[in-house]
Amino acid sequence: MTDVRPVAGVTFCPLDGNAVLFDEARQRVFHLDRLAALIWCHAAEGRGAAEIAERLCRGGVVADRVQGQAWVTDALERWRDLGLTAEDDGGPATAPLRPGVVPGAVEDHAPWPHPIPPPVERRSYALVGTDFSVGFADATARDLLHPLLAHLETDGAPASLIATDVVRAGEGYRLLAQGRVLGGCGAADELAPLVLGEVYNLALRRVPCLLALHAGAVATDAGGLLLSNPMGSGKSTLTAALAACGWRFVCEDIAIIERDSLGVRPFPGCLTLRQGAWSSLAGLLPDLASLPTHRRGGTEAVRYLPPPATGRPARSDKPVPVRWVVFPSHGPEGEPGLVRLDKADGLRTLLANCRAVPAPLDAHAVRRLVAWAHGIEFAALRSRTVEDALGLIAGLTRRGP
To answer: I need a labelling partner for 157 at 20 to 30 A (CA). Which of 70, 133, 249, 376 fits?
Structure first.
């Protein structure tokens, strides 16, 4: 094949014997194992596949030059197909893509076309620096929502306060912010998921951060533990279980990585527990069975658990340093276990779980994240029960429940 070279804007960062590649134009992160990292370094110095294979063979990295050249050629072709390298005679430029951001800026929504009726009660709250009030259309709305927001309640009404209103619309409700419609629901048991989701988005948009991850977090004096994976992996269940066992609650589902410290900023929203988690947590959280059941998305049954008493100090803005990152999964198949991951693969997997990137990452930010990852233990966890998971995490962190 024609010799290739890395394209401009692709940054190579060594990490724990492996490496991370960052494609700034497309905001993509790749993990390279030791062999791939060596091939990349040789290609970046202008060497072709045959010369790279010869050097790897002489260095004892590969035993057979022919097999080594096949591996090198395969790697270079894959990188070319991904747009990370280009042939020496030139190649097409890659189109930049914008990172995702949290939807729902107030000004993006349509105005409410009717006069807003006076609420039966209005209360003020604050979440990660965002002050907001909620006007409740009736006692039903107040009794459903205030218990889930009470731990955020404040006495004042600062000038920066965002006024939201829950108003009746037929058999359901609409949520307004500054007179604009953020969303609606058709029944009272769908109201809490609507309001909590939109309020969290309002707050998240106003927090200066490097990243917002799909992750829960708890902490000890030794540091923070991030539990990150897509919905359905059991991270909320495990976050609730660890908090019930004495870990300090930091956040659930939204982990805000601060730009300066790269610590996790406490985000004390409610724990959202799906129906499948209720029986698993019954022994640790006996009051869970008595909580109201809500319908998220009109169909999914969930219960909301306000942050436990051990988590209340997390209302402070002090970031929590990350010591461990665990990617949980659960199910009846397979043996429970915990596998430590190399740091480059762990960082790549964590970044794949981004909920929002407020501003495009650049090479400097990624180098900082790579340096940050040097001090973190990454692991993949597989469990059948909550008890399995707690035991495995205790072994990782050397802390019993």
So the answer is: 249
**Single-letter code of the amino acid located at 13:** C
- Please state the pTM of the whole predicted model: 0.87
Rounded Cα–Cα distance for residues 130 and 152 (Å) = 11
Q: Which of 228, 219, 212 is nearest to 307 (CA)?
A: 219
The 10s digit of each residue's pLDDT in 298-317 is 889 999 999 875 444 444 67
Here the tokens at position 85 are: 């390298």
User: For domain 4-87, which CATH number applies: 3.90.930, 1.10.150, 3.10.450, 2.60.120?
Assistant: 3.90.930
Which of 339, 262, 344, 326 shows the shortest CA–CA distance to 16?
Answer: 344
Q: How far apart are CA 180 and CA 106, in angstroms?
A: 7
Q: How far apart are the first and last CA of the chain?
A: 57
Q: And the tokens for 137?
A: 């259309």
Domain boundaries along the sequence of the chain: 4-87, 106-205, 211-396
Nearest to 228 by CA among 355, 343, 116: 355
What is the 3-state composition of the chain as percent helix, strand, coil, each rounded to the nearest 5? 35, 30, 35
